[in-house]
């Protein structure tokens, strides 16, 4: 019984923390961070427990109030959702450890308490989206996470409120499209439970209303995923948000939209419908291929490191979308594996950018020089590890998700998509080695002057910021070396019906 009840714990932990933080910290502001950290640690531990339980015993269902679906609301913890929850909550916990000092520096004191409350609500929404078995509840949690994100973006730089407002407009459109699609589907099937709807749709065929519903739902979630060309809100949001917000949005935020698309396409509408009856997966694959190239090219033109990473995220989201669009076992494994891998890589790199901002006061690539590797040796080492992973150098995690995606393109004989993966790796090398060159290989003629102008000695960040950065760097190598265990032990079990 405890195993079943544990399914509902993680979103409730974050929701409880989001309510408690303003109450307990209204008098003692310093309590906000410990409460958020404790909640995140608890949720991370529960998510690992739930993943182990699912891998051992199979899918776990939780029925709220004892009401059975389709009447009642259901949480479903299967290998896919359990894996996603574990990735989200553990990355969030490590990022929150890092955020303690940087939040104090970048966010006004009177906004710190509501900031942590919003982070907890954002994680509530993320957990709910992944675990719900109800199409309308997915919309509710989608709006909870989005509304929270608007707030944690807006407290950043001077341009942050404009970036948050732009995301609000796009996010509202996305939520509206998704809800409209759910409405069409409900009118046609009479149910909102995912499993129930899947059973009804399997016997109905290509009805126009079903095609319209699917198109609207994918369009709405595509905006949340920031898939090309629905990505316009993302670069400014990642760039102008506080470093702590960027560090939690980049590895987690857009993955929720990708998860929603994966869940709805293959677990609600079914493999045959989305690949043969109404081949929307081909559209997703082509848009994702465009995103991979576009994001890489735009990243090459950026001087601000956070903005470079933002456009890089558009490209990396494309890898996930491409895996979904390939709609074969290797493609799906590559996509889900890249959710983890990109989360680790981008969290590491955004933490590095935050470290630079704390110590240098900026993260402009043109102002980096070779003294940085001496002043901040561990932070720059973490950057190199993250950069090599983004390029796809073995044995880092980035190589293995690209490897499975490449196998997926070969399985489908989609040689044009294979070429996109190869070209994008070269483009990744261009913009990341540009930064590495600045930090490690400054020309000799400029080196002496740089050393004379810079203060001597190291200036590494505090351990509370350095350790999380190095944990992500170590994880990038560790999960790369252990990828076979991860794929065979977990990811083969996440494959949707029809691909097993």
What does this entry look like structurally?
This protein is mainly α and 500 residues long. The protein has a domain at 279-500. 77% of the residues lie in helices and 2% in strands. It has 22 helices and 2 strands. The chain has helices at residues 2-5, 9-25, 32-57, 79-106, 109-131, 135-154, 160-189, 194-201, 208-225, 234-240, 243-269, 271-277, 280-300, 305-326, 329-360, 372-375, 377-391, 397-411, 415-440, 444-453, 463-481, 483-489, and strands at residues 60-63, 74-77. A two-stranded antiparallel ribbon has the order 1-2.
Features:
500 residues; mainly alpha; two-stranded antiparallel sheet
List the helices and strands and how they pair.
Elements: H1 2-5, H2 9-25, H3 32-57, E1 60-63, E2 74-77, H4 79-106, H5 109-131, H6 135-154, H7 160-189, H8 194-201, H9 208-225, H10 234-240, H11 243-269, H12 271-277, H13 280-300, H14 305-326, H15 329-360, H16 372-375, H17 377-391, H18 397-411, H19 415-440, H20 444-453, H21 463-481, H22 483-489
Antiparallel strand pairs: 1-2
Helix pairs in contact: 2-3, 2-5, 3-4, 3-5, 4-5, 4-11, 4-15, 4-21, 5-6, 5-11, 6-7, 6-11, 7-9, 7-10, 8-11, 9-11, 10-11, 10-14, 11-12, 11-14, 11-15, 13-14, 13-19, 14-15, 14-18, 14-19, 15-17, 15-18, 15-21, 17-19, 17-21, 18-19, 18-21
Portion of residues within helices: over 70%
Order of strands across the widest beta sheet?
Answer: 1-2
What's the total count of β strands?
Answer: 2
| Poorly predicted segments | none
In percent terms, what proportion of residues is strand?
A: under 5%
Calculate the mean pLDDT score and round it: 87
Using the alpha-carbon principal axes, give the shape: globular
**Overall radius of gyration:** 22 Å
Distance between the termini: 29 Å
| Strand and helix order | HHHEEHHHHHHHHHHHHHHHHHHH
Secondary-structure-based class equals mainly alpha
Main pleated sheet: 2 strands, antiparallel
Q: How many alpha or pi helices?
A: 22
